[in-house]
Amino acid sequence: MSSSTCKKRQRKRQSRRTGIAVVELAICLPLIVLIFFGTLETCRAIYLRQNLAIVAYEGARVGVLPGSSSAVVQQQCEMLLEDRGIDGYDVVTSPTPETLQVGGTFQVTVTAQCDKNTMIGSQLFAGKVLSETVVMRAE
């Protein structure tokens, strides 16, 4: 067998393998990208929920202190939410800190829309609202 015939066969095998690799890439790449961005958005939602829990805790902590007011709790929560870059939020307190008795429970609920807090505008969490509630006893 001549050396030119061997070289032709090697080139033919290499071109087939290159073609197969391109087909595999065309099939797998969209799936890998979809999984990557889905994971990214899910992690962002988990991060958002954790931040809402922290903000609700801090708001409740301020609300149970003697002499606290609804405005102070609202201001504390808004400051933390803005510092963390969270948009589309709502803070609800129950009851008002001014009417809270010693030993009574104070509740802060913080909600935020997932649509306004996504990194890439994903449809994965479209229309979803995350909420966290913290209840504390007044001092």
Topology:
Elements lengths: L2 H61 L6 H14 L5 E6 L10 E9 L15 E9 L2
Antiparallel strand pairs: 1-2, 2-3
InterPro entries: TadE-like_dom
Protein name: Pilus assembly protein
Keywords: Membrane, Transmembrane, Transmembrane helix
Search tags:
alpha+beta, transmembrane helix, about 140 residues, 3 strands, membrane, rod-shaped, Pilus assembly protein, TadE-like_dom, about 55% helix, 3-stranded antiparallel sheet, transmembrane
Please tell me how large the radius of gyration is: 28 Å
Oligomer: single chain
Strand content: 15-25%
> Which consecutive residue ranges, at least 5 long each, have pLDDT under 50?
none
**How many angstroms separate the termini?**
95 Å
- In percent, how helical is the residue content? 40-55%
Principal-axes geometry comes out as rod-shaped
- The strands making up the biggest β-sheet line up spatially as 1-2-3
Describe what this molecule looks like in 3D:
The protein is of the alpha+beta class and 139 residues long. It is rod-shaped. A three-stranded antiparallel beta sheet has the order 1-2-3. 54% of the residues lie in helices and 17% in strands. The chain contains two helices and three strands.
